[in-house]
Design brief:
87 residues, mainly alpha, Helix-turn-helix domain-containing protein, Homeodomain-like_sf
């Protein structure tokens, strides 16, 4: 599989197209292997070199939302205003 380089992309190449495999590419391929090929999650995880729990989460997310992308994260700006923490 390879390790991510500084830009966050994996060094492994997808073959034919010459584009590097990203985590989203892996998640799409794992979900496709489970739904189109009928593989169990642990076989798809082994094929693509990811943890079984990760494959299960990707497949569950795809089953529930129809996409493998994670849900948006909610949260504030990460800043506190003066007087917010110590009254």
């Amino acid at each position: 599989m390879g390790f991510p380089n500084r830009s966050g992309r994996f060094k492994a190449w997808a073959g034919g197209g010459g584009q590097p495999w990203t985590p989203k590419t892996y998640s799409k391929r794992v979900a496709a292997a489970v739904f189109k090929e009928g593989l169990p999650c642990h076989h798809a995880a082994a094929r693509f070199g990811v943890a079984i729990s990760t494959a299960i989460n990707w497949v569950r997310r795809f089953r529930e939302t129809g996409d493998v992308a994670p849900a948006g994260r909610s949260g504030g700006t990460g800043r506190t205003r003066p007087g917010d923490c110590c009254a």
